Each structure stands twice: as C-alpha cells, then as structure tokens.
Please model this.
Amino acid sequence: MSGLEWATRRGMGALAEKMGIEFTEFSIERSVATMPVEGNTQPVGLLHGGAYVVLGESLGSMSANLHAGAGRLAVGIDINATHTRSATSGVVTGVCTPIHLGRSMTVHEIVVSDDQGRRCSTIRITNMIRDRD
Model:
C-alpha cells in the first residue's frame, strides 16, 4: 500500500477535515497537502496563524506515524512556526520533509507557500514514537 493510500484510509482527523486539508502526496521522505484560505481566516481576512500550524501538524504527525510503523504511535511533543507572509486568498500548500527520523523521535520541517509559490510559514514539529498500548 502506498503512503497516500495509508493516509487516506487512516484519515486526517475531524479538525483537518473541517479546515479543508487534502493530502496530494504522502511518503516518509516527502508529504504534501493543500488547504483553502477561505474559511480559515482571521477577522481581517488573513489566513489565521493557527491554520498554518494545523496544516503543519497534520503533515508532520501523519508523516511521523507512517515512519513509526505498525504497532507504534507518534505523538507531538513540540511545534513552532514562523510566519513570514500572509495569504489572503486561494490555496496554500504545505511540503513536509524529515530532518531526523529516529527510532524514538522524529523532527519534520513543513514549508507552507501561497499560490504564487511564496513562503508564508515555516513550521517545525518534533514527535515522540512509542509502542501502542
């Protein structure tokens, strides 16, 4: 089964679905998802900073869980984001790549860009991997 099939079967969770996040590519080495700006904005019309983080955490945590494998679970223990541009319309795209893939910990970087390919946010997430109960 491909990574994208695995992610589709597992599902992204209710929050990611409400925000319109859609995976377009999914593997241990690289995962990509899109999210509409409309419906995820602050009162002044900018994409909400928390929306960037939800996109980043959805990509990073799901990627960490694919890496963890059967019988194991990856859970987020740290996340940070630096927003460098504001998206106001269209769709943003998050590209997730691993920085560290260990037996007990992963670190991923997620770069979120607007429709013009301009970086809007850089997110880093650390996940702890443990055996499922």
Remarks:
- The radius of gyration is 14 Å.
- The longest strand covers residues 119-131.
- The longest helix spans residues 49-68.
